[in-house]
Batch of 3 targets.
Target 1
Amino acid sequence: MPKLDEADRRLLKLLQRDSTLSTQALADESGLSSSPAWRRVRRLIDEGYIARQVAIVPPVKVGLHAMAYVQVQLLDHTEASIAKFERFVQVEDQIIECATITGTSDFLLKIVAPDPEGLEHFIMRRLLALGIIRGSVTNFVLRQTKYTTAMPV
């Protein structure tokens, strides 16, 4: 179990909700004074509990109205195939998540596009064109009922 006390957990919860809170606001809402709050946040960053602070952009606000989860099965599991696939994933902005998974597929991708045709184009003309994919299963997202990046601390 991580070595976090209750004050650390309160700070992490607050920062996961809004990373733009000032040190004073963090102190006020966590029940700490300003200096200890600042020191704790610095320690949480230094120890890797806070990996980065980002802005979360709703996909529809930037014209991305289609989302899909795509299970991918590679033709083989050679180092070359895996490296080629992982390089592709890293450079493609439309792939917003990738995980190695168990079961009949090797990877699970979360892909966004302006519309369903854009998803189809990306999958057919970019992903499957790699030449290392044995098969894929695509699940289009109809509606997201929950989305969070916050970890339960």
Target 2
Amino acid sequence: MTADHGAGDVSVDLLTQTYRDHYSSLLKLAALLLDDAASCEDVVQEAFIRVHSARTRVREPEKLLAYLRQTVVNLSRSTLRRRLIGLRLAPKPMPDMASAEEGAYELLEKDALIQALRGIQRRQREVLVLRYFADLTEAQVATLLGISIGSVKAYGSRGIEALRVRMEAFR
């Protein structure tokens, strides 16, 4: 059953196949930008829902995966923004007591590379994840993040250096 709406539109079949082929890689992309599995799954599911709703506006089916990646990045940013607002409004824990949330995050953050990635600037992390995990070109990263290729190179270079320093600190 194909739900084509016009020449070039993304069909439900293509979206379903893209889901099967790329769900795992999009989940890993979200995991490098966020810090818990449930949020990652929520972000990726929401990305597919949004792309499904907007599929008649995606005129070039070969760009579907890029559109999904951008949606995952944008939704990850929104998730982090909401958390920051929530943390600002939440009552502060007693200074001598670690919160339950901190303990849960410590269990999730066992991998040194992921810890190091989380410690660098957001834009540097996004560039490194998209360049080296998602294997995008500098031009694709620039388009996805809405920045220049020169900025991608600068954030990438600074991010690699920051990551190197943080990885050495873990050793």
Target 3
Amino acid sequence: MTAQTFLITGAASGIGFGIAKSMGLKGHQVIITDINQQRVDEALTELKKNGVSASGYPLDVTSSKDLDNLMASLNGVRIDVLVNNAGIQHVSRLEDFPMDKWQLILDVLLVGPTRSCQRMLPKMRAQGFGRIINIGSIHGLVASPFKSAYVAAKHGLIGFSKVIALETADTDITINTICPAYVKTALVEKQIADQAKQHGMSEADVIDKIMLEPMPKKSFIDIEEIAHTVEFLASKNARNMTGQALVLDGGWTVK
């Protein structure tokens, strides 16, 4: 695979960091962003320790000003692959769900990728190539209680991607959404505690009876599985795969 430049949001930790590391170790140029400059700097230090060529910028995906600053910094830099990964979560029944938190989740998970795509598409059109890869969720396809904002946003992301796939069908640009079941990240670790509280059960029971119970394979998804899927979607071999939701769910949705 020819070396490409990947721009990854929410890449200072978790899935985003794992994708950045994996792509960098394969010889690609990596540009990471995250909401906090200190976290970006720490992630860059860790990546460079592993021999990854990377640069990084602070980015709040809900901020037009931050996106303006990023685009100005990237002026003249070719971006082959945009990975929309930034995410947050809040677990609560709707009656108790703070509406400002509900709105923020939509702004980060759905409006954020929309803003990024809107800014990046002209560059991709001008160069005649682009890959947009959204890190979605199994919750873009199914629902779980106490996650109304997250489920709504992830469902919306798949619909958004289908529209952009149609709007970019005239050029070598694709957009797809990777939908993993639970990945053992800091975000999921917090969910375990939150769900234990909401359901009135132990954290071990949350893992066994809520997170892994729907999965015939009974296993968390590994970040490397997601990274390899990103690598395929970024390749020329995936040029006719667009508007799709690629499901990594251990059999969750086949039942």
